[in-house]
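STRUCTURE:
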């Protein structure tokens, strides 16, 4: 039996044992939805009578709102006719032309009551149950500055006065910070560390360690009280920690559960547990005695976050549950700080087939005592890309999730939502879709008013499956016809302006990077074609050049002028079997003729966090420094090292190799992760067990150790 048929059999067996609530039975669902539709019709008729004198204005309103939900505005609609949220979040009002378009609300909230939202969710719950039983797989208060902007200016002034270069988190978008396991302010180092609670206890204390590098390495503080801390921010003298947790839905005892803090994390429901997360803000002007200012508690799992212009922006996923019915609001409406979101803060796209919410919140870091803004959108998200002005949330929908209505060619697709953001506010702007699936958030990039994306497109032939006796349609079967890759250029309304399709058949996207009007992406099957695309004309993008080399790059980074760094794996050109890690440097001075200048094989290593998390890469082209931890096993010997490199005279030069996996007495450090950073002429290695080492960048000499 094929793997697919085994999976289908297993899902059917599991699905047959599921108890479907009476409220989700087909007849009851039909009745509920019909009642809701009639209620909404009555409300519309009542509103129509009351608002008859304003019919013309309402018609324009509905035309624009409906068009935006499809991803476009009428050509005649200008900035002065678009819609925005009125003061206090209550009601809607036509904005004057002076309001910038990015501060206008173009995606209208649902206008539904909680009960109507429940009815909308019920269709999704029933659809999920149907997919499971038919065997189709499911896709995946302190003294502060008066102004956040004054604080940003103050920080930039301090950095300008300090001419010493130091390592920063490797981020996708300049001036948009990302949470990480370590931070560096040019003197003090901060890291998430795991220390023994006591000798022989067998338990660990998880906390944020603060190290002073002046005059040698010494610990000034260790913030405790965490159980599942995975990332945090440093902004001015604030530390913002983010921790996912779970509670038992039966006994309501709060307890933590280990899990990753990554884009695309599950929404935290199942097994009798529900997920929530905490955002805790500390004031750390005194590095020896940081103090807690505020802990925010939110239902759902934190997926990702950013800090920009003095505001924290968080995106989480809340899984709605049928609960005890439509009056059990807490089961299916997201809450912040114990307070449910209001209906006019929730967006329900007309064609939403999801039971998850994306919840957006912001915090003014000049006064981190309350949320500055909040929104919720009914819909999942596999990844999130944040530009300087926009948040893009994207999720893949396979053909197994959206049954076709006719036989023939069908494709997976990616749905995209765009929210603009600024000064702590969110504005719903557009929705759209493109064929295929995105490899990761580096597959998206915004430039000069356009969103560019590269996808791997699976194309199937849909065949109707009917009952031999009755002729009734039971569903559809899919035969995969081909796999290829595509590049799309979209306007900010998320309609496709230009595209290149049918690239590199039977291969798939491994990595991507955009630089201005040029896009680079790598596909792979046995070899690694590096494509360079000209995006200067958004309506007519074109492939400029292609370079085939062995292996593939999992991560691409622009390394100074005309150079593109690749971190990936070497592979056999005939079989595609991986043969260890590699570094590649490409000359892209002529995008029509890219060249691999050099490569360095790292055959002793076959895994690195840097392959899958760009934040694990220490990189500063201006300082000519590259670092990451790598591990592997060869000839029966396990190796784990942190490696530092420079790029000199057309070659990679290893400047330091620090062992991070050796035994120290009874403790084996191979379990812990390590990160590298630098301040001036000194490299620092931070070990997750609380250790730290300082090395000379010039000689590799060990200078101090903690």
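SEQUENCE:
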């Amino acid at each position: 039996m094929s793997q697919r048929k085994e999976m289908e059999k297993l899902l059917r067996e599991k699905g047959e044992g599921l108890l479907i609530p009476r409220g989700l039975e087909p007849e009851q669902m039909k009745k509920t939805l019909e009642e809701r539709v009639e209620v909404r019709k009555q409300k519309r008729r009542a509103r129509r009578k009351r608002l008859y004198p304003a019919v013309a204005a309402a018609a324009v309103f509905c035309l624009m709102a409906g068009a935006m939900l499809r991803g476009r505005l009428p050509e005649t609609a200008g900035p002065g006719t678009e819609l925005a949220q009125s003061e206090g979040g209550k009601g809607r009002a036509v904005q004057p032309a002076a309001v910038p378009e990015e501060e206008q609300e173009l995606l209208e909230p649902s206008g539904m009551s909680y009960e109507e939202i429940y009815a909308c969710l019920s269709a999704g719950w029933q659809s999920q149950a149907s997919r499971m039983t038919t065997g189709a797989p499911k896709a995946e208060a302190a003294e502060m500055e008066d102004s956040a902007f004054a604080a940003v200016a103050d920080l930039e002034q301090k950095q300008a006065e300090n001419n010493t270069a130091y390592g920063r988190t490797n981020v996708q978008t300049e001036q948009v910070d990302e949470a990480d396991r370590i931070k560096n302010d040019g003197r003090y180092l901060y890291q998430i560390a795991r220390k023994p609670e006591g000798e022989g206890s067998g338990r660990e204390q998880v906390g944020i360690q603060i190290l002073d590098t002046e005059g040698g390495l010494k610990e000034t503080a260790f913030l405790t009280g965490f159980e599942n801390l995975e990332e945090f921010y440093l902004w001015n003298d604030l530390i913002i920690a983010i921790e996912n947790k779970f509670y038992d839905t039966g006994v309501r005892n709060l307890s933590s559960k280990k899990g990753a803090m990554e884009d695309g994390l599950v929404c935290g429901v199942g097994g009798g547990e529900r997920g929530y997360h905490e955002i805790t803000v500390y004031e750390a002007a005194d590095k020896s005695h940081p103090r807690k200012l505020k802990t925010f508690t939110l239902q759902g799992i934190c997926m990702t976050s950013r800090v920009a212009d003095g505001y924290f922006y968080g995106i989480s996923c809340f899984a709605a549950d049928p609960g005890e019915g439509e009056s059990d609001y807490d089961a299916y409406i997201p809450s912040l700080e114990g307070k449910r979101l209001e209906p006019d803060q929730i967006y329900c796209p007309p064609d939403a087939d999801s039971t998850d919410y994306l919840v957006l919140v912001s915090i003014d870091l000049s006064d981190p005592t309350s949320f500055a803004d909040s929104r919720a959108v009914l819909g999942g998200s596999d990844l999130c890309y944040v530009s300087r002005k926009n948040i893009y949330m994207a999720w893949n929908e396979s053909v197994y999730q959206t049954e076709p209505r006719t036989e023939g060619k069908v494709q997976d697709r990616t749905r995209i939502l765009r929210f603009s953001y600024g000064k702590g506010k969110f504005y719903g702007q557009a929705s759209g879709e493109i064929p295929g699936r995105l490899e990761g958030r580096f597959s998206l990039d915004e430039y000069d008013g356009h969103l560019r994306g590269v996808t791997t497109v699976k194309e199937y032939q849909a065949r109707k499956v009917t009952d031999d006796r009755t002729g009734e349609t039971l569903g559809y079967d899919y035969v995969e016809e081909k796999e290829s890759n595509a590049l799309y250029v979209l306007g900010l309304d998320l309609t496709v302006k230009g595209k290149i399709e049918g690239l590199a058949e039977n291969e798939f996207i491994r990595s991507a990077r955009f630089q201005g009007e040029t896009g680079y992406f790598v596909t792979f099957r046995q070899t690694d074609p590096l494509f360079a695309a000209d995006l200067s004309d958004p309506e007519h993008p074109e492939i400029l050049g292609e370079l085939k080399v062995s292996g593939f790059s999992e991560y691409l980074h622009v390394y100074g002028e005309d150079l593109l760094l690749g971190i990936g794996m070497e592979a056999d050109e005939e079989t595609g079997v991986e043969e260890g890690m590699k570094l590649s440097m490409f000359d892209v001075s002529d995008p029509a003729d890219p060249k691999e200048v050099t490569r360095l094989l790292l055959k002793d290593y076959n895994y690195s966090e840097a392959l899958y998390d760009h934040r694990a890469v220490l990189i500063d082209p201006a300082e000519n420094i590259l670092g990451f931890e790598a591990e592997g096993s060869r000839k029966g010997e396990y190796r784990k090292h942190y490696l530092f490199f420079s790029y000199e005279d057309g070659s990679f030069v290893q400047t330091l190799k620090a062992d991070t996996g050796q035994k120290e007495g009874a403790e084996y450090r191979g379990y812990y992760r390590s990160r590298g950073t630098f301040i001036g002429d000194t490299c620092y290695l931070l070990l997750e067990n609380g250790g730290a080492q300082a090395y000379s960048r010039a000689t590799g000499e060990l200078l101090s150790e903690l």
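REMARK: The CA atoms of residues 3 and 301 lie 32 Å apart.
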